[in-house]
């Protein structure tokens, strides 16, 4: 049989296939994508974790009593209720202001009613330090409860005190 160019004398072997085929391409490195993802995702995840931590862990708890002086809903995008209580320790003293934030609408209705009444109120609060944005509130004190308390508001004018009656002078005892 003469040499036929179209058909080789033997079949193709693995070595023949390797010699004819192109070498495999190097795997593409996607370090640019990983770097971009790391620069965007890692700070966002850390901020989210810090925000969750500061909003769920309480630094301190307490109560403040006074008269609600200001109560309003503020914010461009994130609306929160912000208020001030005037705390007077003794009548005639300049009251100290305590600013607080209310995040719950039902509690905001209670505080607003106390504000409209002008009643003395007790605000229970939790302090959350380090909250990263003002979207959750302008202050670090978040009100968790409010109630009206009795008693006279310090510094407020009350009814005039009754004066004891003066006994009549006895005849002959005239004091100059």
How would you describe this structure to a colleague?
- The chain has helices spanning 14-20, 31-56, 105-117, and strands spanning 60-74, 80-87, 96-102, 120-127, 141-148.
- It is rod-shaped and about 160 Å long.
- The longest helix has 26 residues, at 31-56.
- It has a five-stranded antiparallel beta sheet, with helices on one face.
- It has a domain at 58-148: Beta Barrel (OB fold (Dihydrolipoamide Acetyltransferase, E2P)), CATH 2.40.50.
- With 176 residues, it is of the alpha+beta class.
Nutshell version of this structure?
With 176 residues, this protein is α+β, with helices and mostly antiparallel strands. The protein is built from three helices and five strands. Strand 2 and strand 3 form a beta hairpin.
């Amino acid at each position: 049989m003469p040499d036929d160019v179209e058909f080789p004398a033997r079949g193709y072997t693995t070595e023949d296939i390797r010699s004819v085929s192109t070498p495999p391409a190097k795997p593409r490195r996607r370090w640019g994508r990983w770097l971009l993802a790391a620069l965007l995702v890692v700070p966002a995840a850390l901020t989210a974790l810090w925000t969750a931590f500061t909003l769920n862990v309480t630094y301190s708890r307490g109560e403040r009593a006074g008269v609600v002086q200001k109560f309003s809903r503020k914010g461009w995008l994130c609306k929160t209720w912000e208020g001030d209580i005037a705390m007077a320790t003794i009548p005639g003293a300049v009251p100290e202001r305590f600013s607080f934030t209310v995040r719950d609408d039902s509690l905001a209705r209670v505080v607003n009613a106390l504000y409209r009444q002008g009643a003395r109120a007790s605000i229970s609060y939790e302090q959350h330090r380090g909250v990263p944005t003002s979207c959750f509130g302008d202050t670090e004190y978040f009100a968790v409860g409010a109630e009206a308390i009795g008693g006279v508001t310090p510094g407020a004018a009350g009814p005039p005190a009754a004066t004891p009656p003066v006994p009549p002078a006895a005849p002959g005892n005239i004091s100059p």
